[in-house]
Structure to design on (287 residues):
């Protein structure tokens, strides 16, 4: 089924108000386009949870910092629509910048607070403020019952969940597991920037996560689990590590004696491309 493409707020409102599109439950998947199998997994998961699925495609300038790749970010709306035709999307909202931010960049924005200042936020100041501002705007426009986000962007997921909780947004936030290529590399639009040699080196991120998983499975304490990932990354030439962190659901470092769920998050540069990845772990008391 070919989804209905809408470009303006009024067209979106009409699509959502159509009698045939009056669902008992509506889901939204928010993307910046350049879709791949990871995005399609979100759409299929949305289809399982809702009567109507809305996909948004918008390259949000507020979440790009100085020197980042806003202009280089891949855009292929026709290709995205072709992919979505077989994934279960009913409506695709693909607005321009002036439609989302009429009159220019918004004066009032959502702040991610301390959660947005660590890890990705430390390397990309203001990034999560931009993410949360557009996510909240799109939630108001689409009025979903459920919003689906990929686990790959773990800190973004944490920030959205906290915003929904703290600001009383009546939306269920669902995490969908990271989709990986057979070589273990997490799917990302930025993988297109990697040449063949860099692509081989990029596999080290998932190897580091597996090392941390193994250590956690052996009952190792938090710092030992984190160090297992550090050691794997350090052994790979040509990879510059930004951080390796073991954190809770507010992106704060877990205590040395932490027991329970945690996220091991890594970020590294391979060539000029910055990649992120993570794994959800369960730390147990030492054996």
């Amino acid at each position: 089924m070919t989804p209905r493409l809408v470009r303006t707020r009024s067209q979106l409102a009409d699509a959502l108000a159509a009698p045939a599109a009056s669902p008992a439950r509506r889901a939204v998947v928010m993307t910046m386009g350049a879709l791949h199998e990871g995005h399609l997994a979100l759409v299929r998961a949305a289809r399982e949870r809702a009567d109507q699925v809305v996909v948004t495609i918008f390259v949000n300038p507020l979440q790009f910092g100085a020197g980042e790749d806003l202009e280089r970010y891949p855009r292929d709306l026709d290709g995205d629509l072709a992919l979505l035709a077989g994934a279960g999307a009913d409506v695709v909202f693909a607005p321009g910048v002036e439609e989302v931010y009429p009159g220019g960049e918004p004066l009032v924005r959502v702040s991610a607070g301390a959660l947005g200042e660590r890890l990705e936020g430390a390397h990309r100041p203001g990034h999560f403020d931009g993410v949360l501002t557009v996510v909240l705007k799109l939630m108001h426009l689409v009025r979903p019952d459920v919003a689906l986000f990929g686990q790959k962007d773990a800190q973004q997921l944490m920030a959205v969940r906290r915003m929904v909780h703290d600001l009383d947004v009546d939306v269920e936030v669902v995490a969908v597991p990271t989709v990986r290529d057979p070589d273990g590399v997490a799917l990302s639009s930025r993988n297109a920037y990697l040449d063949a040699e860099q692509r081989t080196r990029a596999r080290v991120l998932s190897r580091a996560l597996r090392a941390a998983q193994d250590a956690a499975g052996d009952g190792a304490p938090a710092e030992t689990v984190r160090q297992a990932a550090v050691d794997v990354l350090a052994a790979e030439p040509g990879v510059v590590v930004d951080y390796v962190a073991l954190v809770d659901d507010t992106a704060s470092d877990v205590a040395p004696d932490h027991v329970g769920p945690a996220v091991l998050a890594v970020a590294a540069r391979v060539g000029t491309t910055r990649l992120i990845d993570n794994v959800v772990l369960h730390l147990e008391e030492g054996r």
